[in-house]
Amino acid sequence: MDYVKVATKSEIPADTMKKVKTGEKEVLIVNVKGNYYAINSRCTHAGTDLSKGKLEDNIIECPKHHSKFDVTTGKVVSKPKIAFFRPNIKDEQVYQVKIENEDIMVKI
Predict the structure, then answer these.
(1) pLDDT digits (tens, 9 = 90+) for 46-81
(2) pTM of this structure
(3) Which of 23, 45, 68, 106 is the S-S candidate for 89 at Cβ 3.0 to 4.6 Å?
(4) Structural domains present in the chain
C-alpha cells in the first residue's frame, strides 16, 4: 500500500470536504481547521454519498437518514434516524493522510 496524491491543499479549504476517486475507492477528504482526514465516502448504513452531507466541525452527517460520523476516527456518533427503527451500523473506514508540500496524499 502506497500513498497516492488525491488533491492539493488549495482544493480543500478549512472546514470543507471533497470526494475523490482513487482506483476503485471513493474517499472523502476533509479539512478540519487545517488538519486533513480521509474516510470512506459512502455511509455504512445505506451507501449514501457522504460528500453531499453536512459537515460541522469534525462530524459529517449523512444526507439520507442522518447518521453521523467523526471524520477524525471514522466512529459512528449517531445512528440513522428512521421512525421506530435504529439499525446498527459500522464505523467508516479511515485512511492515513500525509501532506507533502501542497499535496494531500492518502495511503490506499
Answers:
(1) 899 999 999 999 999 999 989 999 999 999 999 887
(2) 0.91
(3) 45
(4) 3-107 (2.102.10.10)
Cα distance from N-terminal residue to C-terminal residue, the chain: 6
What is the C-alpha radius of gyration for the chain, rounded to an integer number of angstroms? 14
Cβ burial of 82 (10 Å; 0-12, 13-18, 19+) is middle
Q: Which amino acid is at 70?
A: D
Strand ranges of the sheet holding 94-95, from the earlier edge strand across to the other edge: 16-22, 25-32, 35-40, 94-95
Determine the length of the chain: 108
Shortest CA distance to 92 belongs to which of 37, 45, 32, 39?
Answer: 39
